[in-house]
Amino acid sequence: MFIKLIIYFSLIYFTLSDQNIQANIGQDITMSCYFDDPSKLDQLSFMHQTTGDILSLGLELFLDDSLVNQRMQLIPFGSNRLDLKIFSVNQNDSGLYTCMFNDEKLSSYLLEIL
């Protein structure tokens, strides 16, 4: 019973992290993903749900080199947080972003460009 209760609260913690982000064109934004098990970082991914693009797996970005080097960066913090930073957002960056662990959604962000 005690173990089930801990798992239940853990899932609530992650689903409550959904949020809306409003940004002006040219602004930098950061989306954070929190996870429980640092040894599973290689199974963590960021997705741009609106376009269907898988942006990252673990600490590797899957975008063309110009976007990776100039506009997006993965930043690990401690042992249980990974940030996706987008520099100088534009209208094409708008939409729904999701942080996933395997097939489980950990957090999502709806990015609206003003």
TrEMBL record:
Residues 1-17 form the signal peptide. It comes from the Eukaryota. Residues 18-114 form the Immunoglobulin domain. Keywords: Signal. SMART domains: IG. InterPro entries: Ig-like_dom_sf, Ig-like_fold, Ig_sub. This is Immunoglobulin domain-containing protein.
